[in-house]
Every structure is written in structure tokens, then in C-alpha cells.
Amino acid sequence: MKRVFNFSAGLAMLPQAVLEQAQAEMLDWNGSGMSVMEMSHRGKEFMSIAAQAEADLREIMAIPANYKVLFLQGGASSQFAMIPMNLLRGKTTADYVDTGDWSAKAIKEARRFAEVNVVASTKEGNYTSVPAFETWQCSADAAYLHYTPNETIRGVEFPWVPATGDVPLVADLSSTILSRPVDVSKYALIYAGAQKNIGLAGLTLVIVREDLLGETVVGTPAMFDYKIHADNDSMYNTPPTYAWYLAGLVFQWVKQQGGLAGMAAINQRKAEKLYAAIEASGGFYNSPVAANCRSWMNVPFTLANAELDKPFLAEAAQAGLTTLKGHRSVGGMRASIYNAMPEAGVDALVSFMQDFAQKNG
Ligand code: PMP
Predict the structure, then answer these.
(1) Is the pTM of the predicted complex or chain greater than 0.90?
(2) What range(s) does the Aminotransferase class V domain occupy (predicted)?
(3) pLDDT tens digit sequence for 176-190
(4) CATH architecture of the region 16-256
(5) 75: Cβ below 6 Å to ligand 1?
(6) 359 catalytic residue (yes or no)
(7) Are 251 and 257 in contact (CB under 8 A)?
């Protein structure tokens, strides 16, 4: 067996220890005589798996007791609609920060339900920076403010949390959740698709302050109502049980890495190594992103000579370094180095990049 270092932006690598545990438990989970996939979601075995996963997540993220944790489906993209449906709460306006392709998608979807006020946009600069908070044109009466702390496609990550005062703060943490500590109490709602740092596609995590629930826009379907999910412990319908179980294994693995502080130390080291290699290449490789907001999770870079893109990708793949092609809207390369990317993977990439630059520079 040979496993590659997969730099995909998501679906992405999973920790090997998690895959091994899932494999060991595949046919018979804990003496139940069944795989987790075959269990009733209302049986005592799965109920214990679900409760443990939530307890571990609450511990890792230090989620305050007045927040609900929801294990939903539909991907982060469904949240683009669920957020206005649930959080407008009688208001008409919502504030959005536009820092990249995912913010733009969230904005587009919110416009179905709300008057969207874009408080700041970095589109003109090709989404390579974070707009200074002092420049934001916030509305007087916004129902909430939405932003994307980490833009997966262009690798722009906020190094600070906006201080929105009484305006509920909503964050799409899809590509940065569990990578470093967050102060959940600063947010009204955090959401994330699971397929990057949590586990399997098909699960969407929502962490929401309880007092915001219960007032949806007219016509909101039951499956889009947070309160219905919260009142039913995320089992209003059949939940994505295997993805929930696997998320639980990942939460335990994160604990073993020293929790979010431990993950942050490893992630910072990995990211710094990669950015340092780009900087040290004498212009052979370049980062398009402003230095103060370079993502720890998604590292886009270009080769000064774009004719070398193809050979770079082909030789990298041969060396077991896969899925380095940048998003089709950006070009160049992108190395996604989520929690499960071992430091050895980053070391191997750095050394490959150095060799390639030497040969072709
Ligand atoms: N937000 C961000 C920041 C993302 O990276 C992605 C997926 N790459 C999405 C939203 C959409 O997620 P999903 O595919 O789970 O709907």
C-alpha cells in the first residue's frame, strides 16, 4: 500500500489513525455486531456515538452552554440560505463582507431573502487581502454580519475577528475550523462543511447561540429551521450517521494532538515552512496574497514561468504529491494543508519545490 500526500482543498486527507480506527471498527462496532453504517440512528449505540462526538467538540472548542451544536446535511452551501431564513428575525437588512468566491456565493444566496449590504469588498484587488475594519460601511440596523474567515480558493485568512458589537456575527469556518483556537462567544453562529477539517462530505456543522432560534422567514421548510433541528437533537430526520461517527473520531484525534492549541502550533509551523520556501525561491514561486492574511490552510502560489505549471504538477504527482493544481478561477498552484496533512507532507513538498526550482530556474 502506498498513500500519497493529497493537497486537495476538499474533499481532503483524513488522519491515518482515524482511517485505521474506522477500518478496525468497520464490521463490528464495539461488540454491537454491526458497522456504524447499519445502526439505527435512534438505537443506544449510535446515540452514544453522537453524544460523545458532541461532547468532544464542545470540549475542544470550549463551546459555551448557551450554544446549540447541530449536525446537519446540505453542505455549507445550504447554510448560505439557512442563515438569512433563520437570522433575519423580522429585519430586512444583513451585512456581508466580500473577501472571495465563497463570500460572493453567500451574498448571492442571501439576496433571495434579504437586502444585502456589502460592507467591504476586496474584489477589485482580485481578492488577495482583508479589508481594514475601519473602512467597513456597516448598516445601522443589520440583522447580522456575515464573513468568511478563511477563503479556500484564494487562501486569504482573517488574522482578527471583527468586533460587531450587538450585531450577531456569523462566520463560514468551512476551511479553518479546528485549525486553531476560536472564541466561540464572539460569534452568533459558526458553520462549516465537514469535508476539510472535520471528516466526511455530507455532514455540516452549525454552532448557534440558542436565543437566536425560533423566528424564521415565512415559508421556511422544516429542514431549514435550526430550531426544529435543535429541538430534535439533529435527528428530525435521518442524520448522516457515518459522517457524524467519523467526525467524532477526528475530534478525539484533535484532542490527542493537544487540542486546538496543539493543532495551531503544528499548522503554523507547516504554513510558515511553505511560505518561507516560496519567499526564498527568488521569484521562481510567488504568493499572490498580502503577507498579513496568508492562510494556514490553503496556500496558493504561482510559478513565474506558467509554462512550467504542467511539468510541475506531473513531477509532483510522480513524487506522491497530488492535487496541487490551483482552482480553475485562479490558476497556478494551491497546496491545502489542513489538520490531517502531516508535517512530513509539507516537508516533502518544500523539498520537491526546491529541487524543481533548481532544475528549472
Ligand atoms: N464555504 C467555503 C469557505 C468553502 O471552502 C466551501 C467548499 N469548498 C463552501 C463554503 C461550500 O461548501 P459545500 O460544498 O459543503 O456546500
Answers:
(1) yes
(2) 4-349
(3) 999 999 999 999 999
(4) 3-Layer(aba) Sandwich (3.40)
(5) yes
(6) no
(7) no
